[in-house]
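Re: your question from the hallway

Yes, I did run it. Sequences:
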Amino acid sequence: MVEEKILHPMMYTGRNFYLLIAVLLAAIAWFGFAYYTQLRYGLGVTGMNEPVYWGIYIASFIFFVGVAHGGIAISAAVRILKLETYRPIARMGEVLTVVSLILAGMMIIFDLGRPDRVLNLFRFGRWQSPLAWDVIIISAYFMASVTFMYLGLREDLPACARKFPTRRGLYEFLAAGYTGTPREKEVNDKVLWYMSVLIVTMIVLASGGVIPFIFGLQVAQPGWYSAIMPSYFVTGAITSASAAVIIIAAFMRHFFRWEEYIKPEIFKGLANFLRVMVAIYFYFMVSEQLTIRYAGSIPEQVVSQALFFGEFAPLYWSYIILGLFIPFFILVIPQTRTITGIVAAAFLVTVGLWAKRFLIVVPPLTRQLLPAPVIDPVTRQSFIYPPTAIGMYTPTWVEWSLLLGALAIGILLYTLFVKLFPMMELKVVEIKPGAPEIAKAVPPPAPEEVKKASSKCNLCGAEFSSMDECCEHAEKEHKIARASCDMCCEEVKK
Amino acid sequence: MEISRRKFLKLCGATAGAAVLGSTLLPTSKGIAQGTELSSGTKYGMAVDLRACENSRACDGLYPCVHACKAVNITPANSYWLYVIESEEISYAKRLPRLCMHCDNPPCVKVCPVGATYKRADGLVLVDYQRCIGCRLCAVACPYGARYFNWKWPTKEEIEKIQRESWEKVEEAWKKIGKEVPLASKAIENPRPAGVIEKCTFCVHRIEKGLKPACVVACPAEVLHFGDINNPNSEISKTLKEKKWFRLLEEFGTKPNVFYLV
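Structure:
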C-alpha cells in the first residue's frame, strides 16, 4: 500500500519516541513547578518591573501569533491557487498554526497578573481597547484554523478507520458520518475553499490589523508609536512562519523518510519566498529607523540610540547579521542553497525573529518620558534618588522555564498529532504521478529506456541517464555545487 | 442526524441572539457610563507650586509628601504613587512632584480591555481592583509612568515596616520646622490585592470624608493645592487665574488636571 508510507508514523513507534515523550514530560513537570512559583508569589518572581511592564511573555506572544500565520497561509494558498506541489506540507502547516495559537494564548495567560479573572475579558470586554480586539480575533482565528484543519483531516478519516481497527471508534466519531463518497468529498472541498478565503483574510486582520495596534497606538511609548507597525508585524509574522514551516517539513522528511513526497522543489520555492520576505523585513527596519533618526523626536531618538549603541546593541546588531544578512545570503547563493542550507537559514530567521520581537517590546519600555525611580534588577530594591529615565530588565529563570515549558507542550501536542493522524493528506499519493503503486502496475520498463531519461536538469531541461551525470552537467553548466545538485536535478520515473 | 440546514441555521441564529441579549443583562462597565457626564459639577484638580517646592529646605532628602502617601495608602516597597523627580534631565524645575494627573482624556482608561480603570464624574481616574486582570496595558499607555503594579502580596511585616519608616520621615521633616504633623497616620483599610494595577487616587477615601489628600496635608511648604477646579470661587481656581502655569506632557492630548505653577 502506498498509504503505508504516509501512515508509517501512526503504525510503528520506536524507542526514540518514548525517549522524546519522557524528555518532554520532564520539561513540562519543571514548567509546572515554575508556574506554581509564579502563581504562588505573583509576577514579582519575573524580571518585569517598573517601568518595564512587559517582557519575554509578550515578545513570545507576538512571535507565536506570527508563526501561526504561515502554516495555514500555505495550506490556504494550496487550496485557493491549487498549488499541488505544496500539498504534502499543507497539513504540517495547519497543525503548526493550531499549536502555536495555543502557545500564544498561554503566553497571554502567563502575563496576566490575575489569570483567575481572564473571563472578565468576555464579561466586561470593551471595544475601545486594542487588547480586547486581540482576544476576539485570536479566538476567532483559533476556531477558524481548528475547523479548517478538521475539514481537511476529515477526508482522510474513513481510510484511517479502515486501516486501524483498534482506533476505529475514535476516527468514526471524528468523521461525524463522513464516509468519503464523491458527493461528500465535493461538498467538503467546497467548504474548505471558502474557509481558505476566510483564513487568508483573517491573517491580515489578526497580524496586520490587531496585534500591532497594542503597540502602534501607545503615544506614551516612543519607538512603538508609529504607523509602520501593522505592515511591519505582518511581514515579520509571515517571515517567521515560512521559516518555521521549512524547519518542520525538513524534520518530517528526515525522520519519516518522506523524500519522495516532500520534494526539493518545495524547499526551493519556500526558500525563494523566505529570502524575499527577509529583504522586505529589512526594508521596514531601515525605514523605521531612518524616520526616527532623520527627524524623530528626542524620546524616539533615545530609544533608537539604545538599540544602536546602548545595552541592546549587541542583540540588535547580532540580529541584523545573524537573523537577516547571513540567512539572506545563504538563500541567495546557489552553492549554499541546499536543503541543509535552507533549513539552517530558516532556523536563524526563526530564532532571530524571536529576538526581534524582544527588541520591539522591551527597549521602548526602558526609556521613559519622565525620570522615575527604577528597580535594581539585582537587589530588587528601587533607588529613589537620583531618579532616572532608564529602566532595566533581565528575564528570570521562571520566565525562561515557562517559555521552554510552553514549547515542550507545543512539541508534545505536535508529536501526539503525528501519532494519531496522518501528517500528509492521503490525496498526495492519489494525485502523484509516478507514485510507487502506479509504478508497480506498469511492467518494469526496458533498461535502455531508463538510460534515455532517468534524470532531468530543471534549469535547461536536458535529460541524463543518471543523477551523477546530471550533477556533473549542473556543476559545469550552471555552476551549482555537487552538494546542492538536488536543487536542479530531478529523477524522472517512468 | 435529522437536522436540516435551515433548522441548523435557525438554531445558530437563535443562539447568537440569546448570547447578545444575555450579554446586555451582565453588569456593564460603570466607569464609562459615569465618565460621559463630565465637566459639570465638581472636578478635582491639583496645583503644584514649583518655586515653593524648590525652596523648602525642610524636605531635603525626606520628602514628607512621598512618604505620607506611602504610609496612608500602604503602597508596596517599590511603588511611589507620588514622588519628587529631582533630576538633571529636567531643565525647568529642580524638584518636580509627579502623581497621577487624573487626565480628562486618560490614555489608561481608553486602553483598558475590561473597563477596570475608569473616570468618575468628579474627575477622578480610579481602578476597580476587583475587576482588573493585571495586563498592564494601562501602565504602558500612561506617559507619566504614574501607574504601578502589585507584583506580589506584601507580608504583614513588610506593610508595617513601610508604614513605620515612611512615617518617621514625615515626622522628621516637620520637626525641622518645629511643628507637629497635621495628619493622623490613619491608613486605608484595604490594601489592594496582588496582581492588579494601582495608582494615586487623590486619596479618594479621604476626599469622600471631606478631607484633603494626604500629600497635600503633609507638605510643610504649602506646595500642593487641592480643590474643585470647576468652582470659580475655590482656592485652587483663584490661584490658577492669578498665576502662570503649565501642565506636564500636555502635547500627548491627555488634558491633565494637575497644574504646575511657575
